Task: inverse folding
């Protein structure tokens, strides 16, 4: 066989090997798969487009971390903590590393400073003067979990951590709370979530709705104090997973979240899409009410003038005029499962039932207003007086669905949401594994005969003949939880070479983890041949 045929056969064998490794890993856990990312995207407001920014040596992939932007050094993005979980769920751990992205030079740097917070997720972090202030979070292991209410400060000039010890009674331990800066330079902590064990293997969660003020004492460097405050107004209902941003008038904006209804062996969530504002100067909550588009207002005025009375008034008062609208969407998953998402919207005004001499456009025909669907953990940002809302997640039965839509709301006008990127059901991401890919792969293998299987051993033998990239070695005693983040970029390159450039990102991640695991296991086996087992592998 010529070199060309040999290379083609080797390519098929490499892909088959990667697929088999990937399948072995995925079979270890059929219940759920988790995919984490360390990609960086920038949304251009003027061009209305997303751009993926490739910067070498980024932080390892993670979720539930915190990111804060500060103006120092031409602009910096600081990231702390978070958690990692492998796709099969066999590896899970929390980070306690600190990274900075220098926006001017587009370079990542890991800042190593002792005395910082322990590894955690769900904490909150804000920029305060020339410091980063961090509060709370949680740490979970296979045996136990712990929630925090400690406070740390990181000095952006000296790159040093210090643990604060505020006086007074502060919040109980929690994660996922609101943490914002007031115009007076104080810090607000609101809400959050925690759980505690009530008896063996039974935990009970708490959705907090209390509010605290963290204040730096005048004239006392490093001295802080806690004060509990009780705001008035239309308070949000208890919830977790809500999103927070600061409006142009220094009010804190709160969107959505989920209210969990817990029983001993079940947990159901009621997802929300309401909007609330907290005014720290007046210490008062306000419900975010949209005024509606101007065309709708004009139509209502015309409707009132043209109202003949009698029959039309009675028609306007009919049951259908006051009933809320139920919007139904169907999302089809990769395995063909159809999930129906129902969203109840407020009824259009009575004017929607009145006649007008003018031709009504879609907005004037009683069409339900556009707004983000109920969700938790959406991302919020305010720029030029506009609120941008991206993604989030919701549950449909036993499934968790991630969203990638993008909305915009003018906070000065408060009229209506604008859709910038619609939800595409075809690109919907399910946070649960289906067997469709494996079934199709097995079917292809049965139809294709055993040629590739016969070539697999030859391919593996040849893999070391032609000079390929050398795999990073495993240090003696190194855990896989440390090895994978350190070498992840290498294994992603190997996986892309194996499965092809057009493969879905989730398949590339699975293949990379499978290849790394196989190499790690082989190295660990060589260590233990003499009977000595490195720490952590017992």
Result:
């Amino acid at each position: 066989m010529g070199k060309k045929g040999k290379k083609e056969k080797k390519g098929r064998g490499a892909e088959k090997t990667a697929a088999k490794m990937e399948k072995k890993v995925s079979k270890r856990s059929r219940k759920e798969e988790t995919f984490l990312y360390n990609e960086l995207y920038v949304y251009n407001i003027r061009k209305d487009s997303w751009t993926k920014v490739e910067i070498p040596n980024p932080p390892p992939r993670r979720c539930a971390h915190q990111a804060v932007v500060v103006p120092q050094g031409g602009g910096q993005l600081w990231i702390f903590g978070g958690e990692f979980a492998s796709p099969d769920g066999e590896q899970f751990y929390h980070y306690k590393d600190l990274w900075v992205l220098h926006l001017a030079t587009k370079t990542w740097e890991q800042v190593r400073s002792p005395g910082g917070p322990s590894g955690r997720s769900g904490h909150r972090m804000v920029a305060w003067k020339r410091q980063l202030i961090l509060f709370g979070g949680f740490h979970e292991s296979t045996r136990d979990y712990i929630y925090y209410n400690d406070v740390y400060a990181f000095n952006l000039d000296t790159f040093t951590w210090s643990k604060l010890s505020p006086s007074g009674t502060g919040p109980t331990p929690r994660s996922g709370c609101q943490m914002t800066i007031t115009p007076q330079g104080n810090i607000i902590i609101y809400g959050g979530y925690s759980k505690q064990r009530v008896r063996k293997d039974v935990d009970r969660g708490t959705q907090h709705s209390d509010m605290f003020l963290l204040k730096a004492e005048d004239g006392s460097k490093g001295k802080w104090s806690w004060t509990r405050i009780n705001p008035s107004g239309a308070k949000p209902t208890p919830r977790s997973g809500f999103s927070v941003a600061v409006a142009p008038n220094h009010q804190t904006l709160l969107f959505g979240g989920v209210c969990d209804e817990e029983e001993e062996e079940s947990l159901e969530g009621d997802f929300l899409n309401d909007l609330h504002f907290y005014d720290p100067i007046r210490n008062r909550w306000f419900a975010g009410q949209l005024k509606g588009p101007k065309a709708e207002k004009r139509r209502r005025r015309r409707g009132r003038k043209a109202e003949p009375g009698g029959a039309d008034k009675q028609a306007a008062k009919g049951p259908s005029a006051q009933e809320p609208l139920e919007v139904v969407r169907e999302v089809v998953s990769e395995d063909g499962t159809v999930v129906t998402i129902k969203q109840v919207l407020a009824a259009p005004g009575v004017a929607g039932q009145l006649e007008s001499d003018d031709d009504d456009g879609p907005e004037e025909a009683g069409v339900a207003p556009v707004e983000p669907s109920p969700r938790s953990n959406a991302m919020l940002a305010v720029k030029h007086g506009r609120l941008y809302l991206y993604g989030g997640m919701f549950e449909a039965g036993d499934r968790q669905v991630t969203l990638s839509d993008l909305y915009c709301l003018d906070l000065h006008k408060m009229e209506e949401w604008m859709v910038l990127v619609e939800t595409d059901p075809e690109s919907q991401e399910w946070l649960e594994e289906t067997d469709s890919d494996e079934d199709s792969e097995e079917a292809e293998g049965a139809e294709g005969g055993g040629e590739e299987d016969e070539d697999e051993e030859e391919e593996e033998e040849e893999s070391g003949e032609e000079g390929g990239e050398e795999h990073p070695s495993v240090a003696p005693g190194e855990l896989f939880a440390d090895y994978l983040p350190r070498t992840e970029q290498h294994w992603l390159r190997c996986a892309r070479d194996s499965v092809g450039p057009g493969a879905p990102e989730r398949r590339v991640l699975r293949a990379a983890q499978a290849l790394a695991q196989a190499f790690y296991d082989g190295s660990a086996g060589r260590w233990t041949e003499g009977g000595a087992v490195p720490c952590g592998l017992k």
Summary: The longest strand covers residues 202-216. The CA atoms of residues 198 and 437 lie 41 Å apart. The mean pLDDT is 77. The two ends are 47 Å apart (CA to CA).
